[in-house]
Amino acid sequence: MDVVSNLLYLLVVLALGFLARYVGLLNDARADRLTQFAFYVALPALVFTSTATQSLGEVLEPRLVLGFWAVLLSAAAVGWVVHRRESSPSVRSVAVVQSYHCNLGFLGLPIVAATFGDVVTAKASLLLGIGALTQVPLTVAVLVFVNNADANVRDELGNVFANPVLVALCFGLLCSAFGVSVPAPVLSGLDAVAGFALPIALLVVGASLSLDEASVDLSTVGSVVALKMLVMPAIALVTFSLLSADVSTTRAGVLMLAMPTAVSTFIYASELGGDANLASANVFATTVASVGTILLVLQFVG
C-alpha cells in the first residue's frame, strides 16, 4: 500500500475498533484477548523476523539510539516547561507524560513495517526495545514524583524486562550477530503471524478510545496534541538532520517518534495518581490527529 492508502486503512480500522466497542461486539474480554495476541505473539514475531534477517551492523546504528534519546528528553523538557503551571499535580503529570510518550508498539512498528519494510523496520524494532527501556521508566518516574504516588517503583520497572518484545528483539539480534539462518518454513510462518500486528493493534487502539469532553480542559488537550503530534516530530526531523543520519535511520526514528501518545499512559496515570479522564482524552485526540500528522511527516521522510 502507498502512504495515503496506509493512512486511510489506519483510520478505517481504528473506526471499526471504536464502533465494535460501541455496539458491544468488542467487549472487554475480547479486546483483552486481542491485546494479548498482539503483545505476546504478533508484535514479537514482527520484531524477530525484521531483525534476524538483517545485517547487525546496519541495524545497530549509534545515531539512531542517540537521536531517539535526544528527541525523547527534549520533548519531555518542553512538555514540562509548557505544563509546569498546571495547578493540579494529576493534570500536570499526565500532560507532561503524554507530550512525549509514543505508541511505538501498537502503532509505530506496524505502520513502519507496512510503509517501508526491510531495514527500516529492523531499526524501528530496535527503537521499540530502546523505547520500552526508556519511556516507561521516565513516565513512571514523572507520575510518581509529581503526584507523590505511593507505588512500588521497582515492581513497575521490573515488568519492563518481562516484555516479550524485548525477548524477541534479543533473539533476533543474536541470530543476526551470529549469522544464524532461520529455516524458511519458520520464517514464513512468523511473517504470516506478524502480518496480523497492524490490523489487530488498530482494532485494539480503536476500541480503547473514549472521550468525555465535559470532564477535561480542552485547552490542555490541545496543547498536548500540539506538542506530541507537531513539536516532537519537528524536533525529531531537526535532530536526525543534525546527526547526518542516513535515510533508513531518519525514516525509522522520525516516524516512530511521530506516533500518538500510547494507550498505556492511561493505565499508568490511573495507577499512579494521574488524571485518568485527561489521559483518555489525550489518547483519543492524539490518535485521531495522527492520521493527518503522520501523512505530513511522511512528506519529509517518505
From TrEMBL:
Keyword terms of this UniProt record: Cell membrane, Membrane, Transmembrane, Transmembrane helix, Transport
Membrane topology note: Multi-pass membrane protein
Assigned protein family: Belongs to the auxin efflux carrier (TC 2.A.69) family.
Main location: membrane
Chain segments annotated as transmembrane: 6-25, 37-57, 63-82, 94-114, 126-148, 160-180, 192-211, 223-243, 249-269, 281-301
Transmembrane helix among keywords: yes
UniProt-listed PANTHER family: AUXIN EFFLUX CARRIER FAMILY PROTEIN, TRANSPORTER AUXIN EFFLUX CARRIER EC FAMILY
Subcellular location: Cell membrane
Taxonomic lineage: Archaea, Methanobacteriati, Methanobacteriota, Stenosarchaea group, Halobacteria
The protein, known as: Malonate transporter
Cellular component per GO, a single term: plasma membrane
